[in-house]
Design goal:
Length: 99
Amino acid sequence: MTQETAHTVQDNKRLSKNKQPVRVVLFPNGKHPVNDFALPPVGTVQDIDSLTRAQLVQYMVGYQLGYNDKLANVRMKEKLKHAVGLAGTYDNIFIFKEN
């Protein structure tokens, strides 16, 4: 994780705890998930919950979160939530769907 990415994740934790919109976290290689890969933005846990499995896999690989094809969607969503810094009370009690 680059220093810039770590800073963004820390900012996002603060923002989400204050119920404010979070910022996009760049992939470790500096690529932008939305602009460079046409992935949907993930600013809320609801955004993450609505991702398809293919999109989840792209985020997992992009953030280098230890993807393997046996991971359940819910587990990938939880990892992604932490990777982008969604840490507010609501974020922590939100229950992801397996879809």
